[in-house]
Amino acid sequence: MIRLRRLFARLRGLFGNVRREEALEREIATHLALLEDEFRNKGLPPGEARLAARRAYGGVEQAKQLHREERSYQGLAQAAQDIRYAFRQLSRARGFTVAAVTTLALGIGANTTIFSVINAVLLKPLSYPDPDRIVQFLVTYSNASVPGTSVPDFHLWQQQTRAFQDVSAYDFGEHGLNLTGNVPERVRGLHVTAGYFRLFGAPMFLGRTFTAEEDSLNGGRVVVISYNLWKRKFAADPEIAGKTISLENEPFTVLGVTGRRFQTEPVADVWVPFQFDPNSNDRAHYFQAAGRLKPGVTLDQANAQLTLAANEFHRKYPLADPELGYRVEPLRDAVVRDARSSLFMIGIAVSFVLLIACANVANLLLVRATARKREFAIRAALGAARGRILRQLLTESILLSLTGGVLGLVLGLVGVRALLAVSPGNIPRIGENGSPVGLDWRVLAFTLAVSLFTGILFGLFPALGASRPDLNGALKESGNRQGSGFRQSKARSLLVVSEVSLAIMLLIGAALLIRTFVALRAVNPGFDSHNVLTMDMSLAGAHYAKTANVTRLVRDVSQRLNGIPGVEVSAATCCPPLESRLGLPFNIIGRPLGNSTETGDGLWMDVSPGYFGIFKIPILRGRDFTQQDDAGAPPVVLINETMARRFWPGRDPIGEQIIIGKNIGPAFKDAPRQIIGIVADTRDADLSVVPENSMIIPQAQEPDGITALGLQFGPIVWLIRTRVEPHQVAATVVEQLRQASGGLPVARIRSMDEVVLRSIARQDFNMLLLTIFAASALLLAAIGIYGVMAYSVAQRSQEIGIRMAFGADRATIRNLVMRQGMLLTIAGVLFGVGAALGLTRLIASFLFGVKALDPVVFLLVPALLTSVALLAVWVPARRASHLDPIRALHIE
Amino acid sequence: MPSKDKESIQLLQGTLDLIVLRTLASMGSQHAYQIATRLQQVSDRLLNLNQGTLYPALVRLEQYGWINGAWEKTESNRDAKYYTITKAGQKALSRETARWRKLAGLVELLLVEEP
Questions:
Q1: In three state form, how does the secondary structure of A456-473 look?
Q2: Is the model's pLDDT at A480 over the cut of 50?
Q3: What residue in A sits closest to B58 (Cα-Cα)?
Q4: C-beta separation of A262 from A102 below 8 A
Q5: Per the CB < 8 Å rule, is A67 touching B55?
Q6: Out of A160-169, B30-39, B51-60, which region has the weakest mean confidence (pLDDT)?
Q7: Does some domain include residue B37?
Q8: How far is it, in rounded angstroms, from Cα A227 to Cα A47?
Q9: How far apart are the C-alpha atoms of A844 and A836, rounded to whole Å?
Q10: Who contacts A533 (Cβ-Cβ below 8 Å, separation ≥6)?
Q11: What is the bridge-based pairing of β-strands A747-751 and A244-247?
């Protein structure tokens, strides 16, 4: 109670100070007068009486100050004072302020930009209820764990009810569905199981989601649609639930519309039930699964439970890969997996840039502190405590950094838009327009924290030096010349050395990524992507579950397309280069298996005749597919060079037979195929990945089971080699495809060159950012070196004058300065290279075609920085050597 | 600043408040000079404190609401701030006095007990 009352009294004491000071003044005056009277009454003469009164009273100013401190919160009042004073100081030194604030704004802005992205991708929780409990299921092999899974796996996971609930399957969303009707349109579709909507907490705007019965075999054709699709395509019909819409020319009953904000990864407009066969033994991996940890169950417990489930799987399928296992990880980790390490690398790089910017501002402050030395000395002499001066200086630097921070926030928000404009667009969780990236409390808090931190970081160092003035020296010295003292110049040298070493690290990182960029472009992918047009079409309807119907369409399309002027040849495939393919085991007929159940694994694809011509992939031996390799002809297969070399070393595989996909499940049942040729290797998974074993079969001979499964979860891809620029024929091709397919829409119309570029876009993006950061670092470091040397020359002009007077020639003077500057640079380079030797290991996974300790990079980068530094030092050195000794000596 | 005079006693933290309260309680309304003079008289100059140090104590006690200040004229027709003890101040005085006695007694006891 008393305390509270006092608190208010003291807070009130912060205001109305003038009145209170006056009252205090009056009270003290009376007191002194009375004391003086007392001494005069004792017989002292008036002058002595006044002095005696003062003595008895003690220090008047001290008493006043004690009174003030008792009266109110002086700390706050002083802070306000400090801020006012700092404002005055900074607005007076306009050039310095502009330079410092700009440097900081750029540094903080860049960091805000990157943090905004990191925030949206890595930090923001997923927008589902209790998202930390949602886990993604992974199938693990000896060398990898992947989300792709099969129906038997999924059913096993659903049975682990002690650890999980709402275990749900959903596909990878790579395909679209054709919303047929008056104007057919391809929409993003997702097959999901009934628990999916509960797992992700889908709010329903209208109607309901599907029941377990509707998600079972023969559960009927039902669909849930998104709010956006409902608005756009169905005119926001409030009576839509229960109505029928047409998907792939088949009637589907709409059950409901999801809430406006509901968005999933992968994104979808329509959701249809999987309707798995509970007795399926089909072990094709074509969808993914997630679930929710039961309350109280930890990730480790869940994984232990899954180990048991994997054992059960192996008992049921003794022929399966013995290494196969199960694992879960938090869904968020699964979603952002690839982006995390990239973002961390970029985040570290950008924070280096800020550190270098801080070093430069600290340098400016050191120079300023020297110039203001007398000011501090006078304040100290007038009784300012060291802490008070320190606080004053820190207030100035924090004011600087906060101003930089506010500007940086604005720059950062602009930067985010620029960044997203150049980004490859495949950053997870960002969406297509980057709308989730924006200002929120985390970004604001980050920018504020970074601003305060940088303010203290670059301010404390100079402030500590400046607040410890040598009063005698500072006051006696007449001019500004003193202060080039040892401590000061040591501090500046340290700053230069550290910024050079930071710049070296960034430059080495950027150089390694640039070499990766060059190496990736130099890769011969083994196929010619020029003048190739690609587009795809969803054939998910029941009609195309039969290979024969697809073959008929493919032949018709080929005839139509080949007749278009400008088209050389066309073909169809499930899996064009640089997209995912099916992995299947194979057995070589007549070859003993030993302990294994199969000879090996390979990537599988089907193509229609003409495919190899389109990409100019040479047939090394044997023959290409022809129209005669159809359903009625003997089954044939082509293999690639790698597979031939691995499995038929020094022998001729042509004429031998393999059987593909044995023991995998009924959908993959296939006849033995005769190898009719060997095709050249292509890097068609990823340019940076060495070719895998490949098996290619003619489309017309594809087993019905694979056709049905493949087209339900992925489109058919049309490929056209053109004689002209590919997009020129696109409109005609689309029209012909529409006519041939009875009105089906096509999507993803791209040239193959675009596809190739997109496949290395992530590396390009990393390289671009790191190069920008490294270039800024180089520039900042050069400015830093220049600043320090220029200042040092100015400080030493008298010394230089004396040296010249004693006969030193220009070259000697120049070398003196150059030596000093280059020694600092070389020290920084050595530190930087040392640190980089350890650090580049961390970016090894981003590199291709270059080692983390690439000698070229580790030699060229220091050489580059040293030459830039040479230039930065040469300017002040030249100025020093051209000093007029007479004037230099007269300056003081 | 406390005097360095050998004879004089340095005040313990917080005791000045008690002494001021006590003075006002027994003498009635007083201004700062009167309080200071009174302190010196009572302590027989053993308590040699700068009179200026009284001011922080006065402002503190005023903010606690234990004393009230009001401007009046002195006999010599000067403006002075006269302080009076309040009801809350009376209560605080008896509380603090009791506590002081307890403390002093305890210290005395310990000093006697020491061999």
A1: HHHHHHHHHHHCCCCHHH
A2: no
A3: A67
A4: no
A5: yes
A6: B51-60
A7: yes
A8: 94
A9: 12
A10: A719, A720, A722, A726, A727, A729, A730, A733, A749, A750, A751, A752
A11: unpaired
Tokens of A255: 């059950």
Q: How far is A67 from chain B (nearest CA, A)?
A: 5
CA A593 to CA A656: how far, in whole Å? 16
Which of the four pLDDT bands, split at 50, 70 and 90, describes residue B13? low
Domain-located, residue B69:
yes
B79 → closest Cβ in A30, A59, A64: A30
- What ipTM was reported for this prediction? 0.79
Q: What are phi and psi of A750, to 5 degrees?
A: -145, 155
Q: Where are any strands of DSSP class E within A323-443?
A: 325-330
* DSSP annotation string for A788-847: HHHHHHHHTHHHHHHHHHTT--HHHHHHHHHHHHHHHHHHHHHHHHHHHHHHGGGGGGG-
* Strands B30-31, B79-85: pairing kind: antiparallel
Side chain identity, residue A99: A
Q: Which of B64, B76, B80 faces A2 most closely, judged by CB atoms?
A: B64
Number of folded domains in chain B? Answer: 1
Amino acid at A402: L
Using the Cβ of B47 and the Cβ atoms of chain A, whether some distance falls under 8 Å is answered with: no
Q: Residue B1's closest chain A neighbor by CA? A: A58
Any CB–CB contact under 8 A between A9 and chain B?
Answer: yes
- Which candidate in A8, A32, A34, A36 is best for mutational testing of the B interface (most B CBs within 10 A)? A34
pLDDT tens for A744-790 read 888 889 999 988 888 888 788 888 888 889 898 898 888 888 888 88
Q: Which pairing describes strands A270-273 and A673-679: parallel, antiparallel, or unpaired?
A: unpaired
What is the C-alpha separation between A663 and A312, in angstroms, rounded?
Answer: 18
| Binary contact (B79, A26; C-beta < 8 A) | yes
B3 lies in a domain? no
Name every chain A residue with its beta carbon within 8 A of the beta carbon of B50: 56-59, 63
Do the chains contact at B56 and A62, CB–CB below 8 Å? no
Query: E strands within chain B?
Result: 30-31, 67-73, 79-85
* Residue B60 domain boundaries: 15-113
Write out chain B residues lying below 8 Å of A62, CB-based.
1, 52
**Contact flag B1-A9 (C-beta cutoff 8 Å):** no
Asked whether the beta carbons of residue B51 and residue A31 sit closer than 8 angstroms, the reply is: yes
Distance in angstroms (rounded) separating the CA atoms of residues A256 and A241? 5
Question: B20, B33, B34, B72: which to substitute to probe chain A, counting the most A Cβ within 10 Å?
Answer: B33
Between CA A720 and CA A568 the distance in angstroms is: 7
Mean pLDDT along residues A153-176: 89
Mean pLDDT of A664-688: 87
Residue B5 lies in a domain: no
Q: Is A6 on the interface with B (CB under 8 A)?
A: yes
Please report the sign of the dihedral spanned by the C-alpha atoms of residue A227, residue A229, residue A230, residue A235. positive
Nearest to B52 among A9, A34, A59 (CB): A59
**Cβ atoms A415, A112 nearer than 8 A:** yes
Task: Give the pLDDT band of residue A14 (cuts 50, 70, 90).
Answer: low
* CATH number of the domain that residue B40 is part of: 1.10.10.10
Nearest to A57 among B51, B60, B63 (CB): B51
Q: Are A653 and A586 in contact (CB under 8 A)?
A: no
Q: Which is it for strands A176-180 and A185-192: parallel, antiparallel or unpaired?
A: antiparallel
Q: Specify the higher pLDDT residue, A732 or A386.
A: A732
B3 in reach of chain A (CB within 8 A): no
Q: Which residue from B minimizes the CA distance to A36?
A: B33
Contact status of A70 with chain B (Cβ, < 8 Å): yes
pLDDT above 70 covers a percentage of chain A that reads: 94
What integer pLDDT is reported at residue A647 of this predicted model? 92
Question: Is residue A583 helix, strand or coil?
Answer: strand
